[in-house]
Design brief:
The complex is a heterodimer. Chain A is mostly helical. Chain A has one domain. Chain A has 15 helices and no strands. The longest helix of chain A has 28 residues. Chain A is globular. In chain B, the strands form two sheets. A six-stranded mixed sheet of chain B has the order 5-6-7-3-8-9, sandwiched between helices. A three-stranded antiparallel sheet of chain B has the order 2-1-4. By secondary structure, chain B is of the alpha/beta class. Classes of the chains: A mainly alpha, B alpha/beta.
């Protein structure tokens, strides 16, 4: 409580830190803010080309899936990666002035939230081009972003604090995120994965092990706040608020009527099964609990270690 | 008002510097996990009444800056407690918080908000700040293009526009050139006459004597003497002279 009051008292510092982060990042570049949007767009373009054009992925509206999946992931990963440097770069301030140290990871988080908002402008621009109707279910993006931000803050606080003591932390984070990316449904849709009862691929000890624990693995997979965040984005933006575990993208007008009917039939076949097995709201609650717990643990670790920041820099 | 009661501060100095996990593992395997604990402050107690100006003198490594950092809430004491009443403005190594890529103007707003001014309050004082620093024409240029003197002038100017009740000063009595030194010193005297509490750490004994009626002499983390500046400084000078003559002299 006392910490929250201190944060409020120093809110202008937070504002100035965020403003400075944004200014410094784009200072020497002519295109300025466009870079924050151009890079992810190029990335998505490459994936689309590889998975859709070259490998012939059959998923409908794959481009829209990629964008709605990548936005929350990019926000999350960038916020946590940025936090690795947020204290060490500000040692001059930390050693000389008193302010709540939590402002530093918080400013990294909010700067990335601003980037996310910019990316949304582009997203809605694309939606306008594709002729998607704006609908009330877009509101789901707000709680989903809050969920991802809460989780990101917890990890950012830990990473920021540990980075002061060990320079390896940022490399470890980079590696972990490289793997974690594939454990979130950015590149693929999730309903097929959940409906599958068998692991694919060669039979060996590893695949039998995975096979035996497949139902548990699926549940753990769905407890990830990032996964739930991505699914909620897709639910709100693409399928009109339907259960994203079983829904099929049908709102986009880029599908032909034949494609749409085929997709509905396919989806309906797995719908009943998955819906009974994986109630979405159940996992939203679990992921929310995970996110809040991470934020609390992160804050406790950060507060404890922050007392030594000025001595260790 | 500043009150320090039985303040102890322990530092841990590792025998080798470890900044990565690999180094930590290697050091652990070699058994080089040693570190030395030492006390930077030992049982320091004093109190400063509102409106009093107090100087802290003593050789390098005597704990002066640690003491100031604890009062400024940058460090926490290991034992004991420090209580400060009133709005504190720390002038610790001016301009270090400035970001080189940002303009002078942006840095003024950031620095002022760290010292507790709101955006509107800073805007109201902005003209006066750059006028005092004598830098009106370069405020939109990035700070990395400033000379070091310009940076400390700007830092000092921001700090003295805060209207604090307690002013903490670390080695900043000699910022800028002769002209600016006179100006900043005059400004600090104004603060004193306005009844602000001033706490100065400095090696500039003349400046301490001119600004503070009372001084603390620190040595090896302990408070040796607390009394009128003139007497404390004389005692300190005699001790230094005696030491220079050697143990036999």
């Amino acid at each position: 409580m006392r910490e929250l009051r201190e944060l409020w008292r120093f809110r202008e510092v937070l504002y100035n830190l965020v403003r400075r982060n944004l200014k410094v990042r784009y200072k020497n570049s002519v295109l300025g803010f466009f870079w924050s949007v151009l890079n992810p767009l190029m990335q998505i373009g490459v994936w689309y080309f590889v998975f859709k054009v070259i490998m012939g992925n059959a998923e409908p509206n794959y481009m829209a899936q990629l964008i709605t999946g990548f936005l929350p992931w990019l926000f999350f990963s960038q916020a946590v990666l940025d936090s690795a440097a947020c204290v060490t770069q500000e040692m001059a301030l930390v050693k000389k002035a008193y302010f709540p140290r939590s402002l530093l990871p918080l400013s990294a988080l909010i700067s990335n939230l601003v980037h996310l908002c910019l990316a949304f402008i582009v997203l809605f621009g694309l939606f306008a081009i594709w002729g998607v109707d704006v609908n009330i279910h877009y509101w789901l993006v707000l709680p989903a972003t809050l969920l991802v931000a809460t989780f990101a803050y917890g990890l950012s606080a830990m990473v920021a604090a540990w980075s002061v003591f060990y320079a390896d932390v940022k490399f470890i984070v980079g590696t972990v995120f490289g793997l974690w990316f594939f454990l979130t449904p950015v590149l693929y849709s999730i309903s097929g994965f959940l409906a599958r009862t068998e692991m694919l691929g060669e039979r060996n000890w590893l695949s039998s092990l995975l096979q035996s624990s497949l139902p548990t693995l699926k549940k753990v997979y769905l407890a990830d706040p990032i996964t739930i965040g991505i699914l909620s984005y897709r639910s709100g933006l693409l399928v009109g608020g339907e259960n994203p575990l079983v829904a099929y993208p049908h709102l986009l007008s880029t599908m032909t009527e034949a494609e749409r009917q085929a997709e509905i039939l396919r989806a309906q076949a797995v719908q009943a099964q998955v819906q009974a097995q994986y109630p979405f709201w159940h996992y939203v609650l679990i992921a929310t609990a995970v996110a809040i717990l991470t934020a609390l643990v992160g804050q406790i670790i950060f507060t404890r270690l922050s007392r030594q920041f000025a001595e260790r820099g | 008002m500043i009150e320090a009661r039985n303040v102890w501060k322990q530092y841990r100095r590792p025998h080798i510097k470890i900044t990565s996990l690999k180094e930590a593992v290697v050091a652990f395997l070699r058994g080089q996990t040693g570190y030395t604990d030492f006390w930077a402050l030992e049982n320091v107690s004093f109190s400063v009444a509102p409106g009093e100006a107090v100087g802290v003198i003593g050789p390098n490594g005597s704990g002066k800056s640690t003491l100031l950092a604890i009062i400024a809430k940058v460090l926490e004491p290991t034992k004991g407690m420090v209580k400060v009443e009133g709005k504190v403005c720390p002038l610790l190594e001016l301009g270090t918080g400035f970001h080189p890529e940002l303009s002078g103007r942006d840095n003024v707003y950031l620095n002022a908000s760290l010292l507790g001014l709101s955006h509107d309050e800073t805007r109201a004082r902005y003209e006066s700040i750059i006028e005092f620093a004598e830098l009106p024409e370069v405020m939109d240029a990035p700070v990395k293009t400033y000379s070091s003197g310009m940076v400390v002038r700007l830092g000092f100017s921001v700090a003295v526009h805060m209207d604090p009740e307690v002013l903490l000063i670390d080695e900043v009595l000699s910022v800028g050139d002769e002209h600016f030194q006179h100006k900043s010193f005059a400004r600090l005297r104004e603060f004193r006459e306005a009844g602000k509490t001033i706490f100065v750490v400095s090696h500039d004994l003349l400046a301490v004597q001119a600004l503070c009626e009372r001084s603390l002499w620190m040595q090896d983390g302990r408070l040796i003497t607390d009394g009128p500046s003139r007497e404390v400084i004389r005692a300190y000078r005699e001790a230094v002279a005696k030491q220079e003559q050697g143990p036999g002299g």
